[in-house]
Design a protein that fits this description.
Radius of gyration: 17 Å
Helix content: over 70%
């Protein structure tokens, strides 16, 4: 969904799932590869875009935050939080919040310093946080339900192989 200056995508759900599936280090490495692939020109960013020019976009800070978010989701998964929906939800909400820690200040810098804007804190939050809160909670809930179900399926398959 096109919003300005940050588009609505399902990327954070993918980031959390990648982190939970691969673990902290490999999840962060996968998202670093994603970032580098996009900067190299592969159309992996929102709107099927990619180029070094992405660093000048207000939304690029969120992509940087994806690396840390995948690490955190993986950290929780390595401690088996992803096997219990309530713990998974708590961990995935935290992981889903991390891109905002990077993205909002980056967006403010690009819009105000690079772009010459005069956006205040309330406007920056209106652009880069408030439209995404409900969706972020929904995506964390989806991940919290999907990941434990996936682990249960893996355990069931493992049990049938041993029989």
């Amino acid at each position: 969904m096109p919003l300005w200056p940050v588009p609505v995508t399902g990327q954070t759900l993918g980031v959390v799932v990648v982190g939970a599936a691969l673990g902290a280090r490999r999840g962060a490495a996968a998202l670093t590869t994603y970032l580098l692939a996009g900067l190299a020109g592969l159309p992996v960013f929102a709107g099927f875009t990619g180029s070094i020019a992405a660093v000048a976009k207000p939304s690029f800070g969120f992509i940087i935050g994806f690396i840390v978010a995948a690490f955190v989701a993986g950290w929780f998964a390595e401690r088996a939080w992803d096997r219990h929906p309530v713990l998974a939800f708590a961990g995935f909400v935290l992981a889903s919040a991390i891109p905002f820690v990077f993205g909002i200040p980056y967006m403010a810098f690009i819009l105000n310093v690079v772009g010459g804007g005069t956006f205040g804190v309330s406007e920056i939050l209106a652009f880069g946080l408030w439209p995404f809160v409900v969706g972020g909670l929904v995506k964390a809930a989806i991940a919290a339900l999907l990941i434990p179900a996936a682990w249960a399926a893996v355990r069931a398959v493992d049990r049938t192989k041993k029989s």
